[in-house]
């Protein structure tokens, strides 16, 4: 495993180049997923990203990793999305909710502090909530969190957040099929801001499993994308696969290597689906694409990939 050192002002963290996104633990871990969590630690992964709204994800992680020394884990969790009894969700980013949920997250994760605390999909008016930023700053001073940030998909929102607060972390979508965040990378580099990359596999598109027959017609992703979008993804993956797989990489490893090459403070957080997939993606730590490979991807069809904004 390779590591990246991120500076959060008062403290710094040594974080594995590949983290684990735990949104798929929403309904509780399967035996294979629990084994994958333990295996991730063995392979040197130390970043686990979750949220208080991901079902019992926090409790599962806290239980499965209860005997792992705290200095071998970097906890990233989120607050602000509240699941409703009908299966829907509402937003609550109030100070009272944050304080209450932070304490509950600490309990569920069996820890006295969260390393990265993200606000989950807030709306822009939150930028004017000085009481919330003051409360988060107090949590940093109290040692309950190391830093805070936003989980958003809006470059302008992220830019204004960094200008107005002491937060130094962002969680945003970035993949070969959604490169909007590239317009923000120069500013993030100048500020030394961590970027936890969600959906780095573009919903599974950037893997060797992806093709005309997978995912199938009944899969939620394929229905969400629509058949025209799905067919376009298949064509694009066929074209870029030889570049991503050069040097013996798998397609997924090549897609992660592209991210790690693109931004030195990026931490991709692919989800846990199985032990096999975990081991495939973790191997990408330390991999890089060559300048010629990066250029070939950027110049494909006069910058086609650069302009893509494909939904996850």
Quick description:
By secondary structure, the protein is of the alpha/beta class. It is 38% helix and 17% strand.
CATH superfamily: NADP-dependent oxidoreductase domain
For the record, what CATH class applies? Alpha Beta
**Mean pLDDT across all residues, rounded?**
93
Largest sheet: 8 strands, parallel
- The total number of structural domains is 1
Q: Rough shape? A: globular
User: Looking across the biggest beta sheet, what order are the strands in?
Assistant: 3-4-5-8-9-10-11-12
The low-pLDDT segments are none
Question: How many strand elements?
Answer: 12
Structural class: alpha/beta
The CATH level-2 architecture is identified as: Alpha-Beta Barrel
Task: Please provide the ordered H/E string of secondary-structure elements.
Answer: EEEHEHEEEHEHEHEHEHHHEHHH
**How far apart lie the N and C ends?**
27 Å
Topology, please?
Elements lengths: L2 E5 L4 E5 L3 E2 L9 H12 L4 E3 L7 H8 L9 E6 L1 E3 L5 E3 L3 H14 L5 E7 L9 H12 L3 E7 L3 H10 L4 E5 L11 H7 L2 E5 L21 H6 L1 H18 L6 H12 L3 E3 L6 H8 L8 H9 L4 H4 L5
Parallel strand pairs: 3-4, 4-5, 5-8, 8-9, 9-10, 10-11, 11-12
Antiparallel strand pairs: 1-2, 6-7
Question: Can you offer a commentary on this structure?
Answer:
The longest helix has 18 residues, at 227-244. The protein is of the alpha/beta class and 312 residues long. It is built from 12 helices and 12 strands. The model has no long low-confidence stretch (mean pLDDT 93). The chain is 38% helix and 17% strand. An 8-stranded parallel β-sheet has the order 3-4-5-8-9-10-11-12, covered by helices on one side. A two-stranded antiparallel sheet has the order 1-2. It has a two-stranded antiparallel sheet with strand order 6-7. It has a single domain (3-307), classed as NADP-dependent oxidoreductase domain (TIM Barrel, Alpha-Beta Barrel).
């Amino acid at each position: 495993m390779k590591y990246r050192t991120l500076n959060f002002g008062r403290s710094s963290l040594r974080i594995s180049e590949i983290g684990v996104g735990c949104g798929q633990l929403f309904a509780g871990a399967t035996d294979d997923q629990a084994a994958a969590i333990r295996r991730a630690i063995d392979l040197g992964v130390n970043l686990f990203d979750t949220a208080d709204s991901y079902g019992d994800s926090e409790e599962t992680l806290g239980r499965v990793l209860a005997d792992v020394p705290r200095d071998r884990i970097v906890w990233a969790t989120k607050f602000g999305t509240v699941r409703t009894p009908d299966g829907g969700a509402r937003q609550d980013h109030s100070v009272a909710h944050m304080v209450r949920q932070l304490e509950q997250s600490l309990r569920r994760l069996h820890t006295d502090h969260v390393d990265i605390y993200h606000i989950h999909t807030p709306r822009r008016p939150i930028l004017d909530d000085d009481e919330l930023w003051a409360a988060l700053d107090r949590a940093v001073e109290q040692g309950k969190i190391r830093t805070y940030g936003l989980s958003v998909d809006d470059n302008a929102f992220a830019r204004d957040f960094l200008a107005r607060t002491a937060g130094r972390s962002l969680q945003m979508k970035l993949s070969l099929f959604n490169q909007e965040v590239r317009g923000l990378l120069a500013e993030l580099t100048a500020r030394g801001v961590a970027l936890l990359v969600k959906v780095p596999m573009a919903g599974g598109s950037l893997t060797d499993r992806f093709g005309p027959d997978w995912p199938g017609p009944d899969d939620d992703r394929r229905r969400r994308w629509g058949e025209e979008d799905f067919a376009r993804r298949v064509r694009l993956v066929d074209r870029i696969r030889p570049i991503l797989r050069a040097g013996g990489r798998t397609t997924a490893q090549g897609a992660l290597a592209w991210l790690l090459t693109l931004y030195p403070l990026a931490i991709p957080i692919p989800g846990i689906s199985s032990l096999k997939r975990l081991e495939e993606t973790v191997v990408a730590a330390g991999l890089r694409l060559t300048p010629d490979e990066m250029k070939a991807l950027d110049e494909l069809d006069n910058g086609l990939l650069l302009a893509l904004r494909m939904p996850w």
